[in-house]
Amino acid sequence: MERGLFITFEGADGCGKTTQLELLAQYLKDYEVLKTREPGAKGLGEKIREILLNYDAQVSDRAESFLFLADRAQHIDMVVNPAVQAGKIVLCDRHTDSTVAYQGYGRGIDLDRIRKLNDIAVNGRKPDLTLLFDIDVETSMARVGNHKDRMESAGINFFNKVRQGYLEIAKNEPQRVKIIDASKSIEEIHKNVVILVEELLQTAHL
Ligand code: TMP
């Protein structure tokens, strides 16, 4: 019997989603909340994250995809599912839509393949709500600054494709994926997040 909630935070690097995840966790302080992320939850995830973001030689696009997917399978089995089953609200920084947007739309890997591999990695788990923080690429790249990791160094063209990919995902799944204008102030964005999460809480039985 499922009891908790699974909420994912998505958007291009520099969109401000991590800050919003922290603010939402504080807002939900009366609930049992688990903050987590992909890639890089505790344990194996941290090691995979290190390779994905800091490996300084070339990584093939397919190998990159499998590393993100391996991290996801481990994360779902060892972290997300046990927490949701225990009644927690899981706030997850990035999930399946990142692979569709970055490896699918960004790197150009066949979208159907990516979706099928995502299905294998999540083994039936679906987010109850996905918050997509949308912002123009120039602004998000300026926020990232000069110290870019391996993924962030992919260039403006790549990030334009990632953004379009995310918007396409939201168009196809409007029930699950809610677009949030991430060009607003931190406080305004937080208010929008709270409205959407409160709507979800009304229908959930926590
Ligand atoms: P972060 O900086 O938001 O933690 O994300 C790590 C980087 O990994 C970010 O550039 C997005 C990228 N990423 C993918 O390309 N595919 C994925 O499936 C995930 C989860 C992240």
Please describe what this structure looks like.
The chain is of the alpha/beta class. The chain has helices at 17-27, 44-54, 61-85, 96-106, 111-122, 137-144, 156-172, 186-203, and strands at 5-10, 33-37, 89-93, 129-134, 177-181. A 5-stranded parallel beta sheet has the order 2-3-1-4-5, sandwiched between helices. It binds thymidine-5'-phosphate. The site of thymidine-5'-phosphate has 12 residues, from helix 4.
Task: Please tag this protein with its features.
single chain; 206 residues; alpha/beta; Rossmann fold; five-stranded parallel beta sheet; 8 helices; globular; binds thymidine-5'-phosphate
Write the layout of secondary structure elements.
Layout: E1 5-10, H1 17-27, E2 33-37, H2 44-54, H3 61-85, E3 89-93, H4 96-106, H5 111-122, E4 129-134, H6 137-144, H7 156-172, E5 177-181, H8 186-203
Parallel strand pairs: 1-3, 1-4, 2-3, 4-5
Helix pairs in contact: 1-8, 2-3, 3-5, 4-5, 4-7
The structure holds thymidine-5'-phosphate.
CATH fold assignment = Rossmann fold
Q: What is the helix content? A: 40-55%
Helix and strand element order? EHEHHEHHEHHEH
Tally of strands: 5
Question: What is the top-level CATH class?
Answer: Alpha Beta
Cofactors and ligands present? thymidine-5'-phosphate
The stretches of 5 or more residues where confidence is low (pLDDT under 50) are none
Q: Briefly note the structural class of the backbone.
A: alpha/beta
Number of helices: 8
Under the CATH scheme, the architecture is 3-Layer(aba) Sandwich
Strand order, sheet with most strands = 2-3-1-4-5
Number of domains: 1
Shape descriptor reads globular
Please state the average pLDDT score.
96
Radius of gyration: 16 Å
**Could you state the CATH homologous superfamily?**
P-loop containing nucleotide triphosphate hydrolases
Share of residues in strands = 5-15%
- Biggest sheet overview: 5 strands, parallel
**End-to-end distance, in Å?**
12 Å
